Amino acid sequence: MINESQYLNKVIQLAESMSIKLTPCTLEQIERVNDFCRGSLPKAYLEFLQTMGQGTSPGFLTGHSCFIDELFDLRVWSEELLEETKFDKPLPDDCLVFWMSQGYQFAFFKLNDGDDPPVYYYREYSGQNDYKIISGSLSQFLMDVLNRKRDLFSV
Known about the structure:
The protein is of the alpha+beta class. Helices cover about 35% and strands about 20% of the residues.
């Protein structure tokens, strides 16, 4: 399915070594996301959908809104959060909000920022005046979440 040259190979191997079950999206679900993103899914995110887009067992991404069942609502929820906190920077038109946690923080990438794009972050009442890049790539973001990197979400 995923070979050595793919973006998420190390994440998948580590998750499997930790006995974390990864549930892929169906082809129809992936096509729906691709249509939603106007056909410009980065390869690393496509691999995410193909390997764990429906969910994971506890220990990885548990409790976070990042799977197919909530994906299409994440942008709206993020925009509501920005409005509630009076954050004056709108989300870029060309982004996909792919992760949200507890309704007070979210992450996105720009759809045309390469095959493994940088990850931008916003947290409620953090004093941010712009979105912060918290990871140089989506694959590294996922690895950092899996490894529970303590300072990943510090702003």
